[in-house]
Structures are given as C-alpha cells and as structure tokens.
Amino acid sequence: MLDELGLTKRGPVWQLPGGLAARIREQPFGERHHAYQSVCRQVFRQGVGAGVAPCASELATLGVEMVPGVLPPETCDDLSARIGAWLDAAGGATADTSMGAFGFRTDTTNRVVPLTPEIVRAAMPIARRVLARPMTALAERYLESHFKLDSIRLYRSVPNPDPLVSFRWHWDSAPLGQLHVMVYLTDAGADGSGGATEFLARPLSEQLRRTEYFARGIDDRVLELEQLPDGAKLKNFVVRATPSRGDGLIFAPGLICHRGIPPARGFRDVLLLILMPSLDPWAVGLAAEGIEPMIERMIHRCFGYLPINGDPLAP
For residue range 230-254, what is the model confidence (pLDDT) as tens digits? Predict the structure, then answer.
C-alpha cells in the first residue's frame, strides 16, 4: 500500500512524493490535515501499529485522560521556579495579548513564557520524559499514527474574577488530529482551588458543536454552561480534572469543548506539549530535523501561546 502512495525512505524518515504532497497542501485547512493524517495512519498500520487494537481508553471515549506522575515532584518544582525567573527576566508577568491583535478583549489570566533558544533547550529533556511510555503509546493508539512534537509552551495562570479566552467554554481552532499534553507543575488541589480544567465529555461536545455556539466569536464564549440552552443538562457530563503536580492531561482541543479555571490562590504553572500526526515516531523525526532547526521552528511558528501551523507536512 505504501508503494502505491509512492512513499520512500530518506535515511530514517518517510518522504511523500511531490505530487501527493502538493495535492494535500492545496486542500482547505481541515481537509488538508485530515488527508495527511490518513497517510500517517497507513504508514503506522504497515509498521508498529499492525494488529494494534483500536483505542478504548478514556481519551477515546471521553476525549480526555489523566496520566498520573509523568514528572516527579522535584522536576515540577524546579521548572515552576524557572518559569517565575523567565517571566521576571522578560520584564515581569506578561499577559497573553495575542487576541487583542484581532480586536478581542485581552485575557490577563495567563502569563506566557516567551520562548528563547535557551528556554527550549532547557525544556526539551523534560518534554522527552513526559513523552516516555505510557504517554506515547496512548497518543499513538488514539491517533492510530505516529506523532511529532509540534511545539512547547510554558505559562503561569493567576487568579482572575472575570477570565476570558481559554477560561471560557471553547474548542481550539486546531485540526481534529491535534493533541495537547498539559502537565501540571503545581497542584490543582482536590477542590480545584489551585486551578482545575474542565471538559465536556466527547459525545456532548460533538452535540454542542452542531449548535450555533460553535460559531460564536471569542468574546461571546460563556463562563458557565448554564448560560446555554439545555446547559443545565450539559453540566451533568462535565469531566473536572484536578491534577496533582506531575500529572498530565491528554486531550484533543479541537474536538472537545473545554475551559480552564483560574486558581483561587497563588498560581497554576503548566507545561504544554502540542502533538500532531506524523509519518515517523516523534524521536526519529526530531533527530532527523536537528536541534537547531527545531528550536527555530518552535520559536517562530508561534503567535500568543498556541502555534500556527497550517502545513501538516512541515517539520
């Protein structure tokens, strides 16, 4: 089947023929990413994914899954301290002002660490540890393909009585095959006072996606589901995550309706890894790309605290 597609190996990584790559790139955004993921799935099934049963995890059924203890507490504490120092070095806690460029209200809840080559180098060994099994196995079974580490984000959330953007119910403007791995570096607390994250279970997210709410602008997002028609019923299907430091949440942000909840006290620090389908295992692709091109990509492809990557074939 791979011969029919014309795929070839260049060293350890797969290459698409120019004609197929051009046909994928000329499609609209969503179809483009879906077409590329379909090719990635064929490669996976012909290799390590042969005979792997479909994913029946909470990630597949609910749209989100918590993986406990992906980082040890001491690593979380060290990275949290570094986030504070990096924010101070950047001139103090800087709010994510990216939405203001489009005329939307600025959310002051998240303080985003501006990436530099030194920060990416410091974060990469930690990202590698997060992506050890079982996280990689879970992501691959869900996607039915390999994935690449598309970007790294580090941010601090602070108390805010009127949070906007990511702290209201929303889907990300992302391909449906994108996955987020959100590692808590601070405790959410059993009561969520340290900053919980809530998700509307996948079947209900898909139902809500078919309503007018999906098309609402950023400033029209609701803080509480009860503000929507039948919102009281939807509330019964909310998955509330209150991770301890070192726990990771993995979810599909373009598929699952979700919101962050600001901490009631102190701050919430998060390491966010953004994954996208790939022809090759993430470590193989990263080694072939090289550390310096990877650093440049992660720094320059970003706007605000989420990356803009319209080309699924790009490294």
Answer: 888 999 999 999 999 999 999 999 9
* pLDDT per residue as tens digits for the range 271-286: 999 999 999 999 999 9
How many angstroms separate the CA atoms of 235 and 258, rounded? 12
| CATH code for position 202 | 2.60.120.620
pTM above 0.90, yes or no: yes
Number of domains in the chain: 1
Q: Contact, 282 vs 131, CB < 8 A?
A: yes
109 three-class SS: coil
How many Cα atoms sit within 13 Å of 82 on the Cβ side?
19
Cα separation, 183 vs 26, in Å, equals 35
* Contact between 98 and 305 (Cβ < 8 Å): yes
Burial class of residue 207, CB neighbours in 10 A (0-12, 13-18, 19+): middle
In this structure, is residue 148 part of a structural domain? yes
